[in-house]
Amino acid sequence: MKIYDLDWFFISYDEPQSDNNYEIVHKLKNDVKRVNGVKGFNAAHKQAAILSITPRFITIDADTIWIDKNFGDIEIPDHVMLNNINYHWNSWNPSTRLAYGNGSLKMWSKNIAINMNTHEASRTSSIEFRDVDSKTMANVYSHNDHSEIWQGCRAAFREGYKFGLLKNCDLKRINGWYKNTTRKVSDAFLYGYYNGFRGINTNINDLDYLREQFQNENVFIEPNFIRFVSAARHLLNNEFNFDWPIPPNIYSENW
User: Fold this and answer.
1) What angle do CA 207, 114, 78 make, to 5 degrees?
2) pTM for the structure as a whole
3) Residue 169 burial by Cβ neighbours in a 10 Å radius (0-12, 13-18, 19+)
4) Which end of the chain has fewer CB within 10 Å, C or N?
């Protein structure tokens, strides 16, 4: 099975550079299809599965700004493919300066995608693709970008919430959100982490709500935001021995 021979889908919602990024993918594969504006991550991928002609298909997130030209040349022998497993290639996240599964290039089983639940469209704190098994493949073939502050904050909040909810203390990724991002983005991660750790019901899949929240400059000075961010710092410092400093309560793009 050659990757180029599968159907490719570009999944977009409201990402600022999505049109430009689609053109990047289109240059690699001129018959790439686009699923745009479908509310809910699971629902969008289910739509791709419905449209796919091939039994497996590739998805590319709309914040993908670079794909290795050799990605389409990858060949995977059919006899090693497992029917109940998806496959993904980790993507480089410039915010954390690490490569991992968020925003990765994914190869889906059409059957898995069609039959998964689309529960995340409701106002719950459910995590997309949580019940879908996925195997990490070798090498990094893509880079992502969250150049807009609100977009970076939204991505950071969502990842922080998942980390907190799952009691994840991956210090490399946590350290990446602290050291390599702006104050607002790192605080959005902490805000999400505390919400998740304490089990506060937040719809992390309502992208419209999260965009509006982080486009509003006042969110960063709201008492609850400041209190939760401070609590998350103390939580990480005390429970996981993570040396996350407590900065003064001022905001700048670099601190």
Assistant:
1) 115
2) 0.88
3) middle
4) C
Which SS3 state, helix, strand or coil, does residue 111 take? helix
The answer to whether the CB of 179 falls within 8 A of the CB of 128 is no
pLDDT at position 255: 34
Distance CA 96, CA 159 (A): 11
pLDDT band, very low/low/confident/very high, at 121 (cuts 50, 70, 90): very low
Residue 241 Cα distances to 169, 172, 235, angstroms: 10, 13, 9
Contact 38, 118 (CB under 8 A): no
H helix runs in the chain, sequence order: 18-28, 41-51, 110-115, 149-165, 171-179, 183-197, 207-215, 223-240
The token duo for 53 is 């002609």
Residue with tokens 């050799």: 70
Distances (CA, A) of 141 to 2, 65, 71, 102, 144: 15, 11, 6, 13, 11
Tell me the HSE value of 96 on the side-chain side, using a 13 A CA sphere: 24
- The sign of the dihedral angle between the CA atoms of 187, 189, 192, 194 is negative
